[in-house]
Design brief:
The strands form 4 sheets. Strands 3-2-7 form a 3-stranded antiparallel sheet. It has a 3-stranded antiparallel sheet with strand order 4-5-6, with no helix packed on it. A two-stranded antiparallel sheet has the order 1-10. The protein is about 45% helix and about 10% strand. The radius of gyration is 32 Å and the shape is elongated.
Length: about 425
């Protein structure tokens, strides 16, 4: 636990005008590997400290887990990859189309918000950082202005934050120390996303179990992983024979090759259950628990037993798209409340907000209204061009053969033509 004075290296540090965080500022914590020798007692202490508002130690440990734990790293990258397939857009409230004046206002607000997100030079980085609150519990972005315009949302690493129990107010901990004391911040200068049940909390516990299992497996392999090899001497061998040949036998047994002395044999004794399958199964279980935590139980593993084939990859990509869809909505809502609402209040004082920020995967944007319109037209006997149907529904469609026999739901049974009887 770091409680002393921080050592600061400011050679590569820089601070934007009007901000509190210094980007590139090195502190003592950056010299420490928190997962080397990590014990259950230490992790429990960090989790309890975090409940009291001391976040630096736990968050620094999380950052190493995300880099060093293979399965956590893989799942994190899958989620970020799915998030990367989402795009920012500005949507208009449906009620804006009920009145010409409101529609004009909505279009103007849409243009204003599009100008807002277009002016942020690190929108992708900021989006990814906000999403990591799912793993870490919280994410802070500091607003950077130039000529009174928002130009950047600067990520502030989680170990620079603390809270003074019982207050929930965030304090900037510039030296990243294990403390509850920090500088108060102006909330209107930050974008903050918080998650009450972060993924890393459960995975950190599983990491220690996995680490212990790996150590036990290594010890097992040192003793039982290599078959026992015994040399057998001739029946009438005397002490002089042993004095003359024992060094040669020991060298052959340890190296696994060489010429045996006349009359000597080598016996290899296989060890029952020496494969260590019980340890391998335990580590696989730990990996599956990591995947379960990071996917909300939708997956238990990232690949089939024979490897990640094309089919499995496509199915898993769909699952991660589905998982990230709700997270993207939450991120969009956070940005709308933090920067979108303020921008609209300034540009359209006293006016209702009819436009809002949206983050979603274009391939998953389906218009239920459009789908119903297409279905109604087909039920009435009209043929709908695939291009028009795709545009109305909001997703690509493929032409398929219509099923014969039972009519589709919503269609009436056609009357029989008496002329054919």
């Amino acid at each position: 636990m770091i409680t002393g004075t921080a050592r600061v290296n400011g050679s590569d540090s820089k601070q934007a005008p009007g901000t509190v965080h210094v980007v590139g500022r090195m502190v003592t914590r950056h010299q420490i590997n928190p997962i080397r020798g990590l014990t259950p007692v230490q992790l429990t202490a960090m989790l309890e400290d975090s409940q009291r508002g001391i976040h630096s130690d736990l968050q620094w440990t999380y950052s190493f887990l995300e880099r060093r734990e293979p399965m956590l790293r893989a799942v994190k990258e899958r989620r970020l990859s799915a998030l990367g397939r989402c795009t920012w857009s500005v949507e208009v409230d449906e009620k804006a189309h009920e009145d010409a004046g409101m529609e004009t206002l909505a279009d103007a607000q849409k243009t204003e918000l599009e100008d807002l997100i277009a002016g942020i030079d690190n929108l992708t980085e900021a989006t990814r950082f906000l999403s990591l609150a799912t793993f870490r519990g919280f994410s802070h972005l500091e607003r950077v202005f130039k000529d009174r315009r928002l130009v950047r949302l600067q990520p502030v690493d989680q170990w620079y934050w603390c809270q003074q129990y019982p207050s929930l107010d965030w304090l900037y901990n510039k030296d990243a120390l294990a403390t509850t004391r920090g500088e108060p911040i102006r909330l209107d200068r930050f974008v903050i996303r918080q998650v009450t049940d972060p993924v890393n909390e459960a995975i950190a516990i599983e990491f220690l179990r996995k680490k212990a299992g790996q150590a036990d497996w290594d010890s097992f392999n040192e003793t039982f992983g290599i078959p026992n090899i015994f040399g057998e001497s001739p029946e009438n061998a005397d002490q002089a024979w042993f004095d003359r040949n024992q060094p040669t036998l020991e060298r052959i047994i340890s190296g696994g090759r060489g010429f045996l002395p006349p009359g000597c044999k080598v016996n290899i004794s296989e060890i029952a259950n020496g494969s260590g399958a019980q340890f391998e199964n335990r580590l696989k279980y730990s990996d599956s628990m990591v995947v379960v935590c990071a996917t909300g139980g939708k997956l238990t593993r990232l690949s089939d037993s024979t490897g990640i084939g094309k089919g499995a990859s496509e199915e898993h990509a769909d699952v991660f798209d589905e998982i990230v869809a709700s997270e993207a909505e939450d991120i969009a809502e956070v940005l709308q409340k933090s920067i979108g609402k303020k921008r609209l209040d300034m540009a359209f004082p006293g006016q209702p907000h009819l436009a809002y920020l949206s983050l979603s995967n274009p391939a998953m944007r389906v218009s239920l209204t459009g789908a119903q319109a297409v279905s109604t037209a087909k039920a009435a006997g009209y043929r709908v061009e695939p291009e028009i149907a795709s545009e109305a529904i909001g997703m690509p469609l493929e032409e398929g053969e219509e099923l014969e026999g039972e009519p589709m739901s919503g269609q009436e049974q056609p009357e029989e033509d008496e002329t054919k009887i």
